[in-house]
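[job 0412] stage=complex_fold ligand=fructose -6-phosphate status=START
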Amino acid sequence: GKAGHDHYMHKEIHEQPHALRQTISGRVDELGGNADLDIDLDDDFLRTLDEIHVVACGTSHYAGLYMKELLESLVDVTVRVDLASEYEVYDGHDASQTLVVAVTQSGETADTLSAIRRAKASGMTSFAVTNTVGSTITREVDDSLFIKAGPEIGVAASKTFVSQVTTLALFTTYLGRLRGTLSAEDGADLVEHIRQLPNAVQSVLDAEPKIQRLAEQYVDSDAFFFIGRGLAYPVALESALKLKEISYVHAEGFAAGELKHGPLALVTENTPVLAFLNDAAAADDTVNNVKEVESRGAPVIGLSTPDETNSFCEHSIDVPELGRLEPLVANVALQLFAYHVADEMGRPIDKPRNLAKSVTVE
Ligand code: F6R
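[job 0412] stage=complex_fold status=DONE, emitting structure tokens
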């Protein structure tokens, strides 16, 4: 049941520290600065591959984009992230040196299964990151890694997104250490941040009353915009998707630097802007974008570590310091924001209109 929560989604948001402990359990090698993962793919292949293709849909696609940002800064590999429905393999591509990774919570998404089949037909080695043991994807790929988030009933993904990104961060660590591009010291930093994730997420959950008040204050807005750079950009996209799917209000995520190339025309005093000002996400540059929207009268809610970075924002939500995982923790605050906007509007949060938990048609 819902264990006293009004909706499964609310329960699942609050379950995240527990879900993350399951995701991480037994997989962090603090001394070695490495991830301890049960991966059957050949080490020599993982050491020499030169490209990773990620195929996924919706929220899982954004988890893939987060991994791309992590991987490309820490591991010597080119990463391509495609919406599964758009994925094509081009003639002449060296499939023997490419790993295709399906990120899929359910393991049953038809678009993702179909993309994996195209990749396999071209000769690629395939890998799945999924929540569902025994799902169709696990029977199609060469090897799988489970995110261990536990079942998710709310149609909108919450805890599974956070567990996916965490699992992908573990995979990044593993690959970086195996290939030697990630030093033991940097590996130790990353796994230490992974280890601290459950408590960091809890501290954001503890700020729910404040986040709820902000949601209630702005529930009548025309639209909501989310802006971020680097690691925070995929989180901006994910936060916007969450809000639109459960509240039916227009919400969009933008790379902060893109605002001036068009979207700024949409900004008014009735369009709150939620800005990621995390250190790991080029906060100083985003500050300028915040000023651009403030001068058009938009209320700004800044997410950052509790320092001066956000003092000029109308509102701020504190996110604990957590290196490259800070934007992921910020996401939890915006899950709560989306939830409370939708709840205030009386939406059927666990079953938004027109949507299904697992999409088994292409
Ligand atoms: C959004 C959401 C969807 C799924 C997408 C892929 O909250 O849940 O966008 O992420 O349908 O589903 P999986 O991960 O099961 O392949």
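DSSP finds twelve helices and twelve strands in the chain.
[job 0412] exit 0
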